[in-house]
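Minutes, project huddle
Topic: does the predicted pose make sense with flavin-adenine dinucleotide bound?
PN asked that the exact inputs be recorded in the minutes so nobody has to dig through chat later. Recorded below.
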Amino acid sequence: MWPASVSTPPTFLHKPRTASSCLTVAIVGGGFTGATLATQLLRHLPDSSSVVLIEPGEPGRGVAYGTQCPWHLLNVAARDMSAFDDDPEHFLRWARANYDSGVSPESFLPRRVYGQYVSALLVRTAALHPGRFLFKHEEALAVRAAEPGGVVHLRSGDRVVADTIVLATGNFPPSDPDLPGKTASSARYIPFAWSAAALNEVAQNGEILLLGSGLTAIDQILALRAREFRGTVHLLSRHGLLPQPHQSAAPWPAFWNEGSPRTARGLLRCVRQQLDEAHRSGEDWRGVIDSLRPFTQGMWQSLPGVEKRRFLRHLRPYWEIHRHRVAPEIDRLIAYQLRSGQTRVHAGRILRYEESAHGVAVTYGRRRTAEPVRLFVDRVINCTGPETDCRKLNSPLLTQLRQEGLIRPDPLGLGVDVDESGALLNSQGLPSHFLFAIGPPRKGALWETTAVPEIRLQISELAHALKFRVNAGLLAMHDHDLEYAPVHTE
Ligand SMILES: Cc1cc2nc3c(=O)[nH]c(=O)nc-3n(C[C@H](O)[C@H](O)[C@H](O)COP(=O)(O)OP(=O)(O)OC[C@H]3O[C@@H](n4cnc5c(N)ncnc54)[C@H](O)[C@@H]3O)c2cc1C
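Predicted holo structure (tokens), as shared on screen:
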């Protein structure tokens, strides 16, 4: 439960600002990224600064850590899940003190426990900094410039005025895949796997088709089995590839450097050589892939646009399943399902969707042969993963920002366009002085910006950049700021 006292600090709205050290930061989105940024800003900015977190759900959870299914485990080991870049063992210590004293660095804990961790950090930090934190339990619909910063318009009609506004809105929801024959009244099609109703009233012995075979599909299999679903789960994707399992692997020496190839094909060759070498010397391939982690963003940025597109077209599915892996215990469960035939994987392209009162017939052309295969199922759930092209989204906020020219899509349609500090580029390509993005929306610039180890680094960099701006008095201060309260809720 989110304490009401944290959400309505009485002193906050009336605190006077001083030109040298005051800053109000509004964060839109309170999943891991927004909640942890709020925590870091409260810790690092001067006492005169304030933080407003805008989130329609419970802070610290988001899609990933809001699940209550005990089988939904973290896909990163506990040793790498600290919220703080400068304290890598923080989560381990917290989990041992608050969850289970036997947690080891290699444990893969339930994701709901991680949500409790992120939320607890924010509650505790806010309590240590009374009057500096405001939680707005709301959706942001629009952001507009209002010198010296901007104003966030909320669904209730309230507004939040801030010097700096950070978009921490996470992965965009998925778009519908191409399903020829599906109509607006196709009730057996679930467009969003994470919606509360996705698995409601599923026939216990029925057949379910999951579109996609990545981490979202794996989550849905686990959620179905946790509800004692005894029927068959079909997974259908273009390649039919499943995420690989984690396994301990010896560290592999770094091999990418500034002189490495700058083409998708050249990089593939370079990685394959290292994999062969690892194989010959009896080492596991995971060490090679993991050795790339500190360099992945640099590798991505070193590729020209045409090579990035080539990577996305040909190599992306292979990268995803080797880089974003599942906990070993989840892999064992899925392997059992596959052996027993309770879960079946199909590779191909959907040709036809026909829904009737009795079910849905989905016809796909098998990969390589194009031979048509027909599946008859009770429900179809879209597990294709997040949409990345912000032009295709049904989000009032991102649509408004794009239509009013405050943001633009990145050239590859992977997120929003930003400079190296995370400042959003407007429609003319100029960086905003008050509007930043952090986390998954920066995928176009960074490629790997989804998991905690990458995001916590961005959080720490942005927190320190804002601290520097405050300390150096770099904020554009106007005379009237001295009279205005930092946050208006009208
Ligand atoms: C199922 C799943 C499992 C994952 N497991 C792991 C893992 O084990 N380890 C790991 O490192 N990473 C994992 N990830 C990656 C995950 O993306 C990051 O760890 C992290 O959760 C991203 O957090 P976020 O806050 O950026 O995004 P999100 O968690 O998506 O949160 C974004 C928040 O923004 C809010 N929001 C959106 N629009 C608005 C608006 N207009 N107004 C107000 N609020 C808004 C949403 O309500 C949401 O709460 C997983 C991801 C998923 C989807």
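Observations noted during the meeting:
- The mean pLDDT is 90.
- The two ends are 25 Å apart (CA to CA).
No decisions taken; revisit at the next huddle.
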